[in-house]
Structure formats: C-alpha cells, structure tokens
Specification:
- The protein is 27% helix and 21% strand.
- The chain is α/β, with parallel strands linked by helices.
- Strands 5-4-3-2-6-1-7-9-8 form a 9-stranded mixed beta sheet. A 5-stranded mixed beta sheet has the order 11-10-12-13-14, sandwiched between helices.
C-alpha cells in the first residue's frame, strides 16, 4: 500500500488541552502562527478534519494568502487543497462553511453512513464508503491512488489524531504550545486513551513564534508485523540515504542499512564498503557494531535499501544469514535484488523461510536505485 505523508497539526495549552471549540472560542495561536498554518496548508495536497470539528468549529479550511494560492496555480495545482472529512454516521450539516468554500471535497464514511451523507450533501462532495467501519489505511490509499495526494495535513480533532497515531499512520506531529492555563475539566484533551508507540518521539524542530512555541516530532518505533507504519518509512529513507555514502563499485551494489530497536532507538547503521573495507555489506557493517548479546536484537528491525543477500562470494556468510544469527526477525527493504551479480537471488525467501517477517516498500525502490544507476537501468 502507498500512503501520503501524514502531518498532524494541533494547538495546545500548557496543561495539555486542545483549542477550546465552544461559542466563546479560545484562540491559542496568534497572527504569526496562523500565517504559518496557512503556509503549511498551501504546501499540502489535502486537508482533513473530523466531522465533529466541522460541527463544533464550522471551519472553512482555506489557503488565505492570495500569493500562496497563485503559487499553487503556477505549479499546476488547484488554488485550494482538497478538503477531506471523516464520519462514521454520515451526519453532516450541508449548511456548514466547509462545503461552500474552497475547492473539491471528499467525505470518507462507513457503508451505513454513505447513503445519509450523499442524501444530505448532494453534489457538494464525493462520498466514499470504506466498509462497515472507518478503515484508515484504505482511506489513505484511496487519497494517494485516486486523488494523487502525496502530503496530507490533518487539523483534528482529537479523535482523528488519536486514531492516526495509535495506528502508526502519522509521519509528523506539529504541536504549538500556548502560554495559557485552561481549568475547565470538560475541555477536550489532546489525545485519547489507548496504546501508542513504544519509546520516545523524535524532536526535529523547536521554533518560537511570538509567544507560542512550535514543536515538530516524528514517530520512531518500527512496526511489528507485515503492515508498515510511518516510522518504517522514515528509517527506510535513512537507509536509502546511507547508500549514497558508498564508494562506487562496478562489481557490487551500493546499499545502506539501519538496525532499530522496538522502542525506536537506533542501534547501528552501516553502508557498503564502509571504513575502507572493499567487500563489507551494509547489513554486515551495521550488525558488527552491536553487541551480539544485546537483548534488543530479538525485537529489532533491520532496514536495508536492497534486499539482504542470500549468497555472496566475498565472505562465508551472506547478510540474510547474519541477520538471522543476530536474532532479528523483521526486515524492511525497498528493492528486491536483481540478477546483476547473482541470478535468482532471494534473500527475502531465506529470511521468510526461517520465520522472519520481510516487508517490501516498493515506493522507495527509486531511491534505493539512485546510488546504483551505473549498474541498473
């Protein structure tokens, strides 16, 4: 499955509440941050909010800057990003400003909610049923494949943010912290109860904007099975970037690899021909930096820009065997090994036969090939 990059955006007060959405609405951000949000919207292909946010806030969700709209049009995009909402019941107010401003709109709902939503909205929006329940992976894939959405901005509410984070589908979380204390016990909280990723999120940026602070975070914890999560895509991107560090060779691929613990801690990274060793492979270089007795290896994931090798002439043990010896039982890769040097290479098959989970993300194949253009066309 291919998904857009999913960015969650929220404003919070010092005690962790979301922006109040009552009749006397409390604005947590100021003009400079609202302009930043406008900039993020303009850089997105679609903006999503839950139906509850439409009912409570009656938002327009527009790109307000005429200059930014003009820049979008100059790039061949519509002036406004696609507007998206999600509802299980199909209970939507056809008079809401969401439907009467901006460009195209899409409603994702259940099979039961689709008839009601279509009846209420008429031709104001495309209504897409997702089955008996709200299937977030199917929603994101539909946006990617059918609407060409590559970057999705999610502006709430808390239930939507909670579900995307708990399912490992959010690539980035942007929080704006306001210097306000909200004492109302009924005020909405930032996220709901339930299970989230193990370990800490990665802080990628902090920025002061007037009297508020923007904090940007990325998830770090790998997935646990065949279904990829956002952090898997992050680590595989790093593996592909590491491949660019390889000294070029006419007789071997350039490959990058990262080993990541279940809580998102990076254990080691490596790349082909690292440290002046002309025959070392990426996975081999990374695993050599980790104590073989490290208990985290059993639940770790190896990310490799190219499928781990099943046979090699330069060393006795191929990388698939080294991974299994280390106790790792999950591998994420971008590209199956072609027949350039070894015919019918099947490192994935070797790993799977031994009980390891192998996840291939073909949308990163072009990145993995970028450092090997002299070998593969």
């Amino acid at each position: 499955m291919s998904y857009p990059y999913v960015l969650l955006s929220a404003a919070v007060s010092l005690d962790g509440y979301l922006d109040d959405t009552g009749p006397e609405r409390l604005l947590l951000s100021g003009p400079a941050d609202f302009d930043r949000v406008d900039e993020v919207r303009a850089a997105s292909d679609a903006i999503l909010v839950g139906a509850g946010t439409i009912r409570a806030d009656n938002p327009r969700l527009l790109v307000n800057s005429a200059e930014r709209r003009a820049a979008r049009v100059a790039e061949g995009k519509p002036a406004y990003p696609l507007k998206v909402t999600v509802t299980a019941s199909g209970d939507l107010d056809p008079a809401a400003r969401f439907w009467h401003t901006g460009g195209a709109k899409v409603v994702y709902t259940t099979d039961a909610g689709a008839e009601r939503a279509a009846r209420l909205l008429g031709d104001s929006a495309e209504v897409v049923p997702l089955g008996p329940g709200l299937d977030w992976p199917a929603l994101l894939e539909h946006l990617y494949v059918v609407h060409g959405v590559r970057r999705l901005m999610v502006e709430g509410g808390g239930t939507v943010h909670t579900q995307l984070l708990q399912q490992g589908l959010a690539d980035e979380l942007q929080l704006v912290l306001a210097p306000l204390l909200v004492g109302d016990p009924a005020a909405p909280r930032l996220f709901g109860p339930g299970g989230y990723q193990a370990g800490r999120l990665r802080l990628t940026e902090t920025r002061r904007i007037e009297d508020v602070v923007l904090m940007r975070y990325e998830p770090t914890a790998p997935g646990t099975g065949a279904a990829p999560v956002a952090a898997d895509r992050h680590w595989l991107r790093i593996a592909c970037e590491l491949a660019a560090l390889c000294p070029p060779s006419k007789t071997a691929f350039s490959v990058g690899a990262v080993v990541v613990a279940a809580d998102g801690t990076e254990l080691a990274r490596g790349h082909s021909r690292e440290g002046g060793d002309p025959v070392v492979h990426a996975e081999e270089a990374a695993l050599a930096k980790i104590d073989p007795a490290d208990p985290r290896l059993a639940a770790a994931t190896v990310y490799s820009s190219l499928e781990p090798c099943a046979r090699r002439a330069s060393r006795p043990a191929p990388c698939a065997e080294l991974i299994l010896r280390a106790g790792v039982r999950r591998v994420v890769t971008a590209w199956r090994e072609p027949d350039t040097f070894v015919e019918a290479a099947d490192g994935s098959g070797v790993l799977a036969q031994a009980g390891a989970e192998v996840v291939v993300l073909p949308e990163y194949e072009a990145r993995a090939k970028a450092s090997n253009g002299h070998l593969v066309r």
